[in-house]
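User: Could you check the structure of this?
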Amino acid sequence: MVLDSSLVIIALLVLVLLVVLWQAKSDARRRDKPPAQNSDAPQFHASGVTPRPENNAPASLRALTRRERDIVRLVRRDLSNDEIARELDISKRTVEKHLENIFRKLEIRSRADLVAGPPDDDEN
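Assistant: Sure, the predicted structure tokens are below.
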């Protein structure tokens, strides 16, 4: 019985160690990621709040945050939620939540409506 509980404790310690190492690797990958090369990359402030887009954005897109505009741009490039999540280094669930907010703010119901909507200033 003592041997079994010792093995369980060792297994748990190994598991904790693996999780810590995985998290450290993930943090290092984010820290070492090169800055975005394009000018429409999201800008973050020390407050942690993403600023609103510039006032020269189309009226319907003016209500969106910069991150939501990034999502719109990637949807219009025909990326899936998984691909958008990888591109922006966020979770798929976060992408889905941003899309919910975008649909609500723009009063639309689908990705097709989003693609057909007014052009973003960043698009050519």
